Amino acid sequence: MEQGLDPQEEIEIDRYNRKMQRKYLKSPSTMAILDAFSEEAKYLVPKQIKRLERELRPLERYLKDLRQSWYDKYTKIFIEQVIRTLYMPKKKVEHLKSLKIMERLMCKTTRGVTDADIQMAKAVSIWDIYSFEKRKRNMACCPFHSEKTPSFSVRGNRFVCFGCGEKGDSIDFVQKLHNLTFYKAVEFLNGK
Question: Measuring CA to CA, how many Å separate 111 from each of 15, 126, 155, 182, 183?
């Protein structure tokens, strides 16, 4: 602390310094890490997940056995908290969670589908995707259930069926019609 400052000024300076540290010394987000180290992450993340799971697996098994044991409820809770506190460091558990999130994000970003592909797929007309029965203006018979009178409405590039309640855009339509994942439906609509 500097000399000549009263205690209140010292407290204010200390608060300001802590505030600046919190603001500028934050950990990078998961997406920022993935963007910066995409190639390395593909190799390292699965290895780290396996390592942490291998370390935590015996403790998880023990906790599972503990829950099925003959101890009374409060003893089980106490033992579980002791194990979680002493043997399962919170940092490791949190690190494992963040690695699993990173792994899921990597799967989503490496499918080869860009935002432009998604926008192109959404622009495909629903009327061009499927040949509808009894089409009148913007109404037709729904392909998702059998009906005699049209209850399937298309406005712009969105659809709603008033009979079965299905709704969405052209990507949702192809997903439901052909039982495809989101990425496969985008590829289907873009003709890839």
Answer: 46, 24, 30, 10, 7
What stretches in the chain show pLDDT beneath 70?
1-4, 26-28, 30-31, 107-112, 192
Which residues contact residue 134 at a Cβ distance below 8 angstroms, ignoring those fewer than 6 apart? 140, 141, 149, 150
Domain boundary among 56, 86, 109: 109
Domain boundary among 54, 75, 109: 109
The Cα-based distances of 66 to 70, 81, 169 in angstroms read 8, 12, 49
φ/ψ (deg, to 5) at 129: -80, -35
* SS3 assignment, position 127: helix
pTM for this structure?
A: 0.45
Residue 155, SS3 per DSSP: strand
Q: Return the closest-CA partner of residue 166 out of 133, 128, 124, 126.
A: 126
Q: Where are the beta strands (DSSP E) in the chain?
A: 139-140, 152-155, 158-161, 167-169
Looking up residue 153, the CATH number of its domain turns out to be: 3.90.580.10
Residues 6+ apart with CB under 8 A from 172: 159
pLDDT in tens, 91-103: 888 888 888 887 7
Dump pLDDT digits (tens) for 140-169.
Answer: 988 888 888 888 999 878 999 998 888 899
